[in-house]
C-alpha cells in the first residue's frame, strides 16, 4: 500500500494542504508498512515563479525527503515530463512497504497482482 500526495509547485498553499492531509493520515493509520510519494505538479510553470517561491519549493523537497522520509518527484502533467518517473516511484514505494511486511511478493508479477487486487482511494 502507498499514498500519493500531489500538490501544485506554483502554490505553496497547496503543499500546506497536503501536509495537513498527510498529518491526518499518520494520526489515523499505522504507517509503518505504507509507502509515501509526494508529487509536485506544474514543473513547467515553476520557472515563471519569483525567487521566494522557488526557494520555498526547494525547502519542500528537503522536508519531504529528510523529515517525512518519503519519495519526491517533480512532474509536468501538461508536458508529460517525469510522469512515468512518478509512477515508478509509486511502485518502488509499494515494493519497499511490502518488503517490510510479512506479505512480501516474491517477484514483480506477484507485486503487480497485489497492486491490482488492492483498493485505490483518491482524496
Name a few traits of the molecule:
3-stranded parallel beta sheet; globular; 123 residues; 50% helix; Ras-like protein member 10B; GTPase activity; 15% strand; alpha/beta; 4 helices; 3 strands; GTP binding; single chain; Rossmann fold
Characterize the structure shown.
The structure is a single chain. By secondary structure, this protein is of the alpha/beta class. The chain has one domain (2-117): P-loop containing nucleotide triphosphate hydrolases (Rossmann fold, 3-Layer(aba) Sandwich), CATH 3.40.50.300. It is built from four helices and three strands. It has a three-stranded parallel β-sheet, with helices on both faces. The longest helix is centred in the N-terminal third of the chain and has 17 residues, at 12-28. The mean pLDDT is 85. It holds the Pfam family Ras. One of its GO terms (molecular function) is GTP binding.
Amino acid at each position: 500500500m502507498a499514498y500519493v500526495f500531489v500538490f501544485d509547485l506554483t502554490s505553496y498553499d497547496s503543499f500546506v494542504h497536503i501536509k495537513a492531509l498527510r498529518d491526518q493520515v499518520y494520526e489515523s493509520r499505522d504507517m509503518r508498512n505504507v509507502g509515501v510519494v509526494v508529487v509536485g505538479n506544474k514543473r513547467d510553470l515553476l520557472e515563471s515563479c519569483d525567487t521566494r517561491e522557488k526557494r520555498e519549493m526547494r525547502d519542500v523537497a528537503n522536508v519531504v525527503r529528510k523529515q517525512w522520509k518519503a519519495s519526491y518527484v517533480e512532474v509536468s502533467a501538461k508536458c508529460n515530463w517525469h510522469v512515468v518517473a512518478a509512477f515508478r516511484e509509486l511502485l518502488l514505494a509499494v515494493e519497499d512497504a511490502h518488503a517490510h511486511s510479512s506479505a512480501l511478493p516474491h517477484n514483480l508479477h506477484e507485486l503487480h497482482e497485489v497492486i491490482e487486487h488492492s483498493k485505490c482511494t483518491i482524496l
